[in-house]
Design a protein that fits this description.
This is Restriction endonuclease. Keywords: Endonuclease, Hydrolase, Nuclease, Signal. GO terms for molecular function: endonuclease activity. InterPro entries: Solute-binding_3/MltF_N. By secondary structure, the chain is α/β, with parallel strands linked by helices. The chain has 2 domains: about 5-100 and about 195-240, 3-Layer(aba) Sandwich (D-Maltodextrin-Binding Protein, domain 2); about 100-195, 3-Layer(aba) Sandwich (D-Maltodextrin-Binding Protein, domain 2), CATH 3.40.190. It contains 8 helices and 13 strands. The protein has helices at about 5-10, 40-55, 85-90, 135-140, 155-160, 170-180, 205-220, 225-230, and strands spanning about 20-25, 30-35, 35-40, 55-60, 80-85, 90-95, 100-110, 125-130, 145-150, 165-170, 185, 195-200, 240. The strands form 2 sheets. Strands 1, 4, 5, 6, 7, 8, 9, 10, 11, 12 and 13 form an 11-stranded mixed beta sheet that branches. It has a two-stranded antiparallel sheet with strand order 2-3. Helix 1 (about 5-10) crosses helix 7. The longest helix is centred in the C-terminal third of the chain and has 16 residues, at about 205-220. It is elongated, with a radius of gyration of 18 Å.
Length: about 250
């Protein structure tokens, strides 16, 4: 027998309110909003999840993705919108991704770099938002370059510009915006990582995890994610393909 919506709601949101962790550091999926606190694709998904389960929604706003997982220690959220990373998956349960976003570099026009691989070299300093998915990916990948961490993605870009660093790492849409807003900057054409954005929930909640996985697959299949990306003018982001549950 399939579980009832009431049993799923109780497993997913034990307080009776769906607390959704929103990462403002990922401009593709969320942005600050004066009325609601946040708006964007991840907020639309949170609202749809709450609607399906008949749960009121509370947005728990974070400046960066790196701040969200520590919130588990304080029971701060029920679901989160985060990149799927091994370090995070050791502490939270993830769905399959619903979108893919490239991680790449912002460099100066006159810089000699043509591809991302060329930046892993002695003396190369790369600004990065601490704890972001691309920080975790580059920490695993880089052998020779140095990561210079900043509190947010915007601060990392400012640090790159102000202190003469060789590059800033980030998600492609955010870096394209930064290059368009300044002179003498460009974004490399290739990527060091394909960032897989999924949904997460705390600990071992098998009933909630199965429902959340199926929810993500449903909103990919019925066009909800694609429509949300278009509604929020997020171009150049790929909806992830279907993925069967592993259980």
């Amino acid at each position: 027998m399939a579980p009832s919506d009431a049993s799923v709601a109780a497993a997913l949101a034990p307080t009776g309110v769906l607390r959704a962790a929103i990462n403002l550091g990922n401009v593709v999926l969320a942005r600050s909003d004066l009325i609601e606190g946040a708006a964007g694709v991840s907020v639309d998904l949170a609202r749809e999840l709450g609607r399906r389960l008949g749960l009121p929604l509370e947005l728990v706003i974070y400046r960066t993705g790196g701040e969200i997982i520590p919130g588990l220690a304080h029971d701060a959220w029920d679901v989160a919108f985060l990149a799927v990373e091994p370090e995070r998956a050791a502490l939270a349960t993830f769905t399959a991704p619903y979108v893919f976003i490239d991680g790449t570099y912002l460099v100066r026009e006159e810089a000699p770099f043509i591809s991302v691989a060329e930046l892993d070299a002695p003396g190369v300093r790369i600004a990065v938002a601490e704890g972001a998915a691309y920080d975790l990916a580059l920490t695993r990948q880089l052998r020779l370059a140095t990561l210079v961490r900043a509190p947010t993605s915007a601060a990392a870009i400012r640090q790159f510009q102000a202190h003469g660093l060789e590059a800033a790492a980030g998600i492609r849409p955010r870096l394209v915006q930064a290059a368009a807003a300044a002179t003498g900057l460009r974004v490399l054409p290739d990527s060091f990582s394909r960032i897989e954005q999924g949904m997460a929930l705390p600990g071992d909640r098998p009933l909630a995890a199965r429902y959340l996985w199926d929810f993500v697959e449903a909103v990919k299949a019925n066009g909800f994610v694609e429509d949300a990306l278009a509604r929020h003018a997020q171009n150049g982001v790929a909806v992830a393909p279907p993925q069967a549950r592993r259980d």
